[in-house]
Amino acid sequence: MESWELMAPCHFGLEAVLKREILDLGYEVSRVEDGKVYFWGDARAVADGNIFLRTTERILIKVGSIHAESFDELFEETKKLRWEDYIPKNGKFWVAKANSVKSKLFSPSDIQSIMKKAIVDRLQQVYNIRWFPEDGASYPLRVSILKNQVFIGLDTTGISLHKRGYRKMTVKAPLSETLAAALILLTPWKRDRILVDPFCGSGTFPIEAAMIAANQAPGRMRTFQAQQWENLIAKKCWQDAREEADDLVEGQIEVDIQGYDLDGEAISYARENARLAGVDSLIHFQQRPVSELNHSKKYGFLIGNPPYGERLESQSDLRALYREIGQAYERLDSWSMYLITAYEQAERAIEKKADKNRKIYNGMMKTYFYQYFGSAPRGRAASVKE
Fold first, then answer.
1. Which of 215, 210, 224, 237 is nearest to 163 (CA)?
2. 257 & 363 share domain
3. Per-residue pLDDT tens over the stretch 235-257
4. Cα gap 32→39, rounded to integer Å
């Protein structure tokens, strides 16, 4: 079976989490860049990556990496690539997305147009045809240019992997499923420990935690672009990967995962999303303010995405909310707390300095992941995870 170099993009600052996921699947990581992890794999790896990885947005098959400082050079170098190894005569192909950073070529639409023409020119010569019906499977391409180095990849995923299929109802500015999963995996939380999200919104943190606890692969219930590519990936690869994902699900587990929110409508959304994800029996949702957060058990985890300005009327409201978070945390015996927020005065308002602070980009927004490490039960490692 042919092997490719595959590329998996992720949120900036969370590359190590994705790398660990890929290694746990049994694949060899070739290199790591800002927001990207590359690894070697065959057709089964494409299926595994799409179905099992929780923290990437998509899986791309690397077609080539070329250097281009002019459109003529882009055309000629693109044309040299062996497109016939990927796209059949009746394949529909286009450059779905192009981005450029610190490069001489910077117009996405021109990059897309030039590369499409180059691929057509190459395949016309190879297949000895002048017109392409493009009535077969779709082969979208994604291109990224950094310092005049052009990465070209076939998008095996289609709709982004953060769309698991369960989140039909959302509140304003929800946290993406892939980011929520990555932040949970960045902590040492395990399913035998309590997890509470006091700002659960539409339920993303609790639902992702429950899916991790139940060993439920995030992509097992959805479809992917490359399922059409029988010239590259046999149907059996997808069937085997899904069967493995189904076999790994643990239906009978006991967990203590809770989600609270002040907004009653958000709680109803969260319950419905959890039902669609098949984990509603594992999560307790309740309309409740953070000021009432308390728990008699020790060694739990508080993880959340509190408001940081867009839903509060003033900075004084924001400070008061974060002060309430700090007061709630003081009441929790031996707990750990993890908060992602863009509010730069969070530690001052909480009145406690974080043990660790990680900068993470949520889209174009710079956020901080404040990590407060609680003590661990006797015989267990402390709540620190790199």
1. 224
2. yes
3. 999 999 999 999 999 988 999 99
4. 9
